[in-house]
Amino acid sequence: MGYYIAPRFLDKLAVHITKNFLNIPGVRVPLILGIHGRKGEGKTFQCELVFEKMGIEVTLISGGELESPDAGDPARLIRLRYRETAELIKVRGKMCVLMINDLDAGAGRFDEGTQYTVNTQLVNATLMNIADNPTDVQLPGSYDSNPLRRVPIIVTGNDFSTLYAPLIRDGRMDKFYWEPDRDDKVGIVGGIFEADGLSRRQVEEFVDKFPHQSIDFFSALRSRIYDDQIRNFIHQVGFERISLRVVNSAEKPPEFQNPDFSLSHLIEMGNFMVSEQKRVENSQLVDEYNRLNRGRNNQSVPTSVVAPVSQPSKNSLNEPAKTNGSSTHLTLETQEQVRQILSQGYKIGIEHVDERRFRTGSWQSFAVPQIDAESDAISTLEFFLAEHSGEYVRLVGIEPKAKRRVVETIIQRPNGKSS
């Protein structure tokens, strides 16, 4: 099977990697290349094809490795893998890169429900430090004065707007938005079905039939074509014996005939997969569960706990929210902020943290139900302030579409201290 490498993708990676191995006087080269775009468009696979074509060795880190119950472990892992890759360049005498897949999944902040941990801070700080000093990357507790070989870092993700802004600035990270055009899709899909006898005209018609589907849709569809033969094989062997027949069997592996890869059959199977996608999109079961949970939570909160909203005097505009049994009213300034956030179509978020964790910035998010009415938002905030009187409380405004923060304001400090 011959796989297709998009020329734009090959050009971008080849230039970035090669430039990092050259010493160009007076030119500061970003160490990190961030490849971002829609899910399922083959970002990682295209990288692998480019690495294979250029003979580049890769050290991999998954976004899932960027969190740990032990603070500092992910940051140490990044430094360790970077140093190992630098040693590989020295020993092998060839280009090597460090690649972090799904960086936004491990270090991004998607909404008010994403907890910002110490490890997230340390990962961001470590990557920024390596980008600024690529030849001087030390492990905790030791120091090596010998300069390292510079190691290009490739990171992939879907939405880099969720990452820490100083990390993705141009001096540290070069960005490449990967969105395959029609010619790219035709080339990639043609490579997927190359062994199945589809002509270029048929591939073009196939791609045009599903113009909004990602690359992995076509790859998954090819796998689904074999389902009928595998189902027949299971029935022939028997459900009770299929495990012994497939795993560690003395018999030769089963052979399958070339299935029906006619264009009409592919389109029929593609339409079936699209209908499955729509059922997932239309189910919205999580919204139903959240509505039920909100109903239970609202029933469990005594109405007497939430004090009615009154209009404070002008002198109380800058007074902090007092919560130790005396008053849980929001200041006029905070009420105005809530009003402005909701009027612009943003969502309300609430975060809290105790005094010890405040020093490390380890804020915890409170699951706020969908609030549209200003009175409901103020009542929720006042109730939350009363429940967390000994902690810092922060009001957050979130833009739903871009999933980015537009407002962050501390509205309470421990024991009612002013902000």
Describe this entry's structure for a reader.
- This protein has 419 residues and is of the alpha/beta class.
- Helices cover 43% and strands 13% of the residues.
- It contains 15 helices and nine strands.
- It has helices spanning 7-21, 43-54, 73-92, 103-107, 118-132, 182-192, 200-209, 215-224, 227-237, 242-246, 263-283, 285-300, 332-343, 355-358, 374-387; strands spanning 32-36, 57-62, 96-101, 153-157, 173-177, 347-353, 364-366, 392-399, 404-412.
- The strands form two sheets. A five-stranded parallel beta sheet has the order 2-3-4-1-5.
- A hairpin with a 4-residue loop joins strand 8 and strand 9.
- Helix 1 crosses helix 2 (43-54).
- The longest helix has 21 residues, at 263-283.
- The protein is globular and about 75 Å long.
- The N and C termini lie far apart (63 Å).
Largest sheet, strands/sense/barrel: 5 strands, parallel
Order of helices and strands: HEHEHEHHEEHHHHHHHHEHEHEE
Distance between the termini: 63 Å
As residue ranges, the low-confidence spans are 300-328
Biggest sheet strand line-up: 2-3-4-1-5
Give the beta-strand count.
Answer: 9
Q: What is the rounded Rg?
A: 27 Å
Residues in helices, as a percent range: 40-55%
What general form does the structure show? Answer: globular
Mean pLDDT: 83
Number of helices: 15
Helix/strand structural class: alpha/beta
Strand content: 5-15%
